[in-house]
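Notes on consecutive records. When two proteins share a document, each keeps its own sequence and its own token line. Never mix them. Below: protein one.
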Amino acid sequence: MLANSAIACEALDMAPGGRVVEVTDGDTVVLDDGRRVRMIGTQAPKLPLGREGFETWPLAPEAQKVLSELTLDKSVRLGFGGERIDRYDRTLAHLFVETADGEIWAQLFMVEKGLARVYSFPDNRACLDLLFAAEARARTDRLGIWTNPYYSVRAADRPGELLNRVGHYELVEGRVLLADRSGSRVYLNFGRFWKEDFTAVIEGPALRLFEADGMDPTVLEGALVRIRGWVDDRDGPRIEITHPEQIEVLATR
């Protein structure tokens, strides 16, 4: 598939961008007016970028190289689908690169190449369906990161292995054994021992987003799902769900 603007999400508010003068990593560029643009909706393998003790993720240099070849010294437009500035004063936008063959949607391009994963936020949820579809194709075709065990989809029924990934952004697949509401939150339990097994936790603010979308996460009991997010360790490995797109339903029973 050609990652061009003809198939881009129509929900975006488009604006002029400028010329790309620097590519920081596989999902961040700098424009000629000084703006740093974080390519919202995706996460490429990370480089240390001066962070002490931070290890380069596998394929991070390759992702930076490919994005550089696509964008450096090119004119771009920006597409906004949510919050526009983050706490680091970066511009949050979808990036459209002007080429002789038309505009190329940089996020979709990188995901299609297997050099980025879908990575969304509760205040920036536009265009994710197209990115999820591209990620699924790249994963099936074993492109880029999908050949490297560092990025493997983890099994929810192996909590010991998930504990080794605490502090990492992971995709975790498994069947929901119990979907239970307790007070202002919902727990999706993937094992019988909730203090040891993997759990996805949906807090009150996220539940309001589910409700606004007409979704009830408690109906996921028995469903086969894929959860994505940052793994922490609270009574076993868990991921906090902040918005519905972190849960992909693979089968209802």
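Protein two starts on the next line and is unrelated to protein one.
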Amino acid sequence: MRNAFYSKELNRMFEGINPDDYVIGTYLVGAKLNEDPIIKAASIAIEQTTGSWVDIPEETPELREKYAAKTIGVYEVPDYENMENLHGVEKRWYVMRIAFPVVNFDDNLPLMLSSVIGNIAALPDLKLLDIEFGKKFVEKFKGPKFGIEGMRKLMGVQGRPFLNNMIKPCTGYTPEVGAKLFYEAAVGGVDIIKDDELIAGDTAFNRIEDRVKLNMAAAKKADAVKGEMTLYCCNITDEMSKLKANAMKAIEAGTNCIMVNVVGTGLSALRMLAEDPEINVPILAHACGGGAWFTSELQGMSSHVLNKMIRLCGADLVVNSSPYGKFDILHSKYMKITQALTSDLYDIKPSLPLYGGGVIPGLVKQTLTDAGIDCILGVGAGVHAHPMGPKAGAIAMRQAIDIIIAGKDLKTEAVGKKELEEAIRVWGVYEDGVKDNYLI
């Protein structure tokens, strides 16, 4: 009698399913030399949908047909065809694609994740490489309220990247100190100023209403000088039960953007905020802690999967790492994250990627070569550690942006621009090979 793990209820070609009805997980899976990869993939499909490690009496072929996940691809790397080529091989590696019926979880994101990367996350040598979302799953998500076009319209920024600054020090300062630093960065030309991820909600030394009121007063003062709008992203991260109250507290105090540490609060918390009609300001998502999900090459999930879900859940702005500063993220991963945030995803608006972690004026050309102008340059110490002060650090960044957008040479055009000249003197230019010896 045919092994049930080879059955049609568990195995299809991609052409044998309607992709709109499924969410498809793609995995890297390691297996022992003599393990049957078809059975291994089917076992994953069963474990994560209708069954267990042993047959269940009520798990009928009819139930499996409708609710069991389907293996739609098993690809060995390298692609062995003959037994003799396996001589000396101890472990074999596969890319497996498994399709999960949307009917199992509808638009319930936690349940979808429990299905696609639930119990199997504990298996050795298994990493989720991608999730392809079917139309039926995505259609109930609203995504970002503003997106890239909405942010440009809101702020009147056209033809160039946005400039962001993170208030430094990261935490431990009073609202008065923060507002002083805020003004210096804003008046120098920073578009978007955010709290660091390490200060959020109400702390004993820095309450939401206090920092919002003082920072927005500083923004108003700076805007009158520079003739541009400054966005303040107030970090409301807290226990989930306090998030809505924190958001409304910040909005009522005058903030024009809110921020949330999305891994700590959860993706569904971000979705709750983004889809709430009372929250009418952009949302910045910081993925701090995400490395625990994706840093291992053989476990967890890929970074671009996380970013795709953050976009789906409604973040207008998403913080990620530049590969050129203090983080050693692969360039290809950084580009795949950009793709996840900005490429077509049904009717979901694109999110603005924010690249931080060591960005300086000498990195502007390289970053715009990679990402184009639809991005945010996230500059922390590159503003606050400028030898001439935060205002000069911001001016230097805007000078560099203008020069690169105009297609001119940065070092040639920096002559006579004292803020930019000083930044280049201290931190160098990436194209010259200066990468690891600047402040971060």
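For the record: The first helix runs from residue 37 to 47.
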